[in-house]
Design a protein that fits this description.
heterodimer; A: about 350 residues; 15 helices; B: about 300 residues
Chain lengths: ~350, ~300
């Protein structure tokens, strides 16, 4: 900097040296030394450093491969009942199978044994995990979409709209979810069955399974409220930022402001909440199938597999451990992943 | 403060009414109506049922009757368990469930809070890591997994504890452990975070500078403030214990309300389903209300207003 006169602070003297062209040193300070790091890259870098989170991500990917890709290569189906192969322990062969092997045929081993109807446990486990993962993912996506749109509208428009919308949220929030879920699961079957068989174009309902559809409907009706509250809170905070005022001054529509500016800036909490919603949905689904309402037989669910295993628990404990370990693994990995994502993308919560 | 209470009570009442209404109308989605769904009674019985429950009247009238009965506390008679009223079954089952549930809530708090404190005080050391690993594990494993594994180890392999019923104190051990596992883990994590937060506050430093004993600092200052988030968790805790009871009572064959509820679901006992749902929902809603108001009273920041 050039020399400074002894200036009284409020003097209106203009210092000529302030207006001289910048010299080389000064220009150096404006050179960008390093690229600015975007939000995503920063978060991903933080996430990668977290070993537990990375490990749980890998486990989840493995589970996905196990549930969605492997069954296409696996010789046994989940509902295929093999006569003579009932109640096999893991890696045990039935007599018919032994005979076939003696005759030179290659028989694929039952890695995890079979159940009392001769169905291969590995195949059922794969299908059960697939159901759990599907429920978790679809439920979370539905919750994300419904919740964030609702919360964004409430937070953005404020005033009366906000008041009414949040009252509704409060009421739904107060209702104990499991009870309503059970109720809906029991009663939705009939109208859904009617829809599937009578109204054309809804045939896919019975393809996917009424139990599964009911679960999706029920989750999306009840669980979006948590997300809506969080999004609303974020929007309320972000609404006053200058870029929102600027966008409005430029004539941006409400939709554009919410979609492009506000919601994209809540990404951190949104991702974390969605990821943590997944294990909670899977947890609920497994409890529902355990007590007997959920996906219908013969489609296996980790919860119903565990429920069936109780009867023969002393003689065939493996039938309980397999779904139990699987479900615990899935829920644990998603929880750890969610924690890792929160540490990476929502640093405000770090103490 | 008063306005807050009024608002919350109003919200609770509206929600209970909403649950009752939803329950009522959902039951009507079942073909043939709630009272005729599975069995086809003889025409004479049908007539009697119709007259008694007013089934031949329009839905709105039935709804009105239903609501009036609710207010009187009449929940109707069980369809499957002939001769017993729903209210009777509920009160009998609830006594059992309340005992098991109450004990497990106590256990969760009495174990979870100290564990969380210990973890916070030993932050970063092996004790903290150990507790946190167990806690993370505890919130991931569903209650039916814990119950069945416990049963396998302690009843079947070791033959130490009984598998069903509730006649001696040993019968309580496994169900309570299974039911309190998740809440204990959750509370420890919650307590740890809250404690760490409190310990970093300025007033803790003041207390230390004043020369207070470790004991006094911990109990009089830190604990009191750190426990507030746990109080807010009490509401969801009660709701969780409720749903957990469905699973645990089924596995350990405990004659509680949860077991009755599940049996009535699978047995399509619609009056029972309706009555139990409304009862349980009201219970949870009211407990949440009580906890919320209690929290507002306890939170010292409110008193200063």
């Amino acid at each position: 900097m050039s020399h400074e006169h002894e200036k009284k602070p409020f003097s209106l003297h203009l210092d000529v040296s302030d207006f001289l062209p910048a010299d080389k040193e000064e220009k150096q300070s404006l050179v960008v030394m390093r690229e600015s790091v975007s939000f995503w890259r920063d978060g991903v870098r933080r996430f990668r450093k977290n070993k537990i989170a990375m490990a749980s991500l890998i486990v989840i990917i493995l589970i996905f491969i196990f549930s969605f890709i492997l069954p296409s290569f696996y010789p046994y189906g989940y509902e295929q009942q093999i006569r003579g192969s009932e109640n096999l322990r893991p890696m045990q062969y039935s007599e018919t199978e032994l005979a076939r092997m003696a005759a030179g045929e290659k028989v694929f081993p039952h890695f995890l044994g079979t159940d009392n109807l001769g169905r291969d446990m590995t195949a059922r486990l794969m299908m059960g995990s697939r159901i759990s993962l599907l429920v978790g993912l679809v439920a979370s996506v539905l919750v994300l979409i419904i919740g964030s749109i609702y919360g964004a509208i409430a937070g953005y428009f404020g005033g009366k709209v906000d008041l009414i919308m949040m009252r509704i949220v409060d009421i739904i929030y107060t209702v104990p979810d499991i009870l309503i879920i059970i109720l809906l699961m029991v009663t939705l079957k009939y109208p859904l069955q009617d829809l599937a068989s009578n109204v054309p174009g809804f045939g896919w309902i019975s393809d996917i399974g009424i139990g599964l559809i009911s679960i999706f409907i029920v989750f999306s009706l009840l669980y979006w409220v948590g997300m809506a509250r969080i999004v609303r809170g974020q929007i309320l905070a972000l609404k006053e930022q200058e870029y929102v005022t600027a966008a409005r001054a430029l004539g941006a529509s409400h939709r554009r402001i919410i979609g492009k500016h506000l919601l994209t800036n809540c990404m951190g909490p949104l991702i974390v909440t969605t990821t943590l919603q997944i294990p909670s949905a899977i947890f609920t689904e497994s409890i529902l199938s355990f007590i007997g309402i959920g996906v219908q037989a013969p489609m296996p669910s980790l919860g119903s597999m565990a429920s069936n295993a109780i009867g023969g628990i002393s003689t065939y404990p493996y039938r309980l451990f397999e779904p139990a370990i699987m479900i615990s693994l899935i829920i644990l990995s998603f929880n750890l992943l969610g924690d890792g994502l929160r540490d990476a993308f929502d640093p405000k919560l770090k103490n | 403060m008063g306005r807050y209470i009024v608002k919350r009570v109003f919200l609770a009442v509206v929600t209970i009414w909403l649950v009752a209404t939803i329950t009522f109308f959902l039951m009507f989605m079942v073909p043939g109506g709630p009272f005729l769904a599975e069995k086809s009674p003889s025409p004479a019985t049908l007539e009697a049922l119709n007259r008694k429950y007013g089934l031949d009247q329009p839905v709105i009238v039935q709804y009105k009757n239903y609501m009036l009965n609710l207010l009187k506390g009449e929940l109707g008679e069980s369809i499957k368990q002939r001769g017993r009223t729903v209210g009777d079954i509920i009160s009998r089952g609830f006594k059992v469930s309340a005992r098991v549930g109450g004990i497990s809530i106590l256990v969760s708090v009495l174990i979870g809070v100290p564990l969380g404190c210990v973890a916070a005080l030993n932050r970063g050391k092996w004790l903290d890591n150990l507790i946190m690993v167990v806690a993370t594990f505890g919130i991931a494993v569903p209650s039916f997994v814990i119950s069945t594994v416990l049963m396998l180890i302690f009843s079947i392999k070791l033959d130490l504890l009984p598998t069903y019923g509730l006649t001696s104190w040993q019968h309580y051990i496994m169900p309570v452990i299974a039911l309190s596992f998740y809440p204990t883990a959750y509370i420890s994590r919650l307590m740890r975070t809250s404690m760490l937060d409190v310990l970093g506050q300025d007033y803790m430093r003041t207390a230390k500078a004043k020369g207070l004993s470790q004991f006094k600092m911990l109990f009089k200052h830190a604990l009191r403030n750190a426990i507030l988030p746990v109080v807010t968790y009490l509401g969801p805790l009660i709701a969780y214990t409720l749903t957990g009871s469905f699973v645990v009572e089924k596995i350990f064959t405990i004659p509680g309300l949860g077991n009755e509820f599940i049996s009535s679901i699978t047995g399509r006992d619609y009056t029972m389903i309706m009555g139990t749902t409304i009862f349980l929902a009201s219970l949870v809603i009211i407990m949440n209300l009580v906890v919320d108001i209690a929290y507002k009273i306890i939170d010292p920041r409110i008193k200063l207003k």
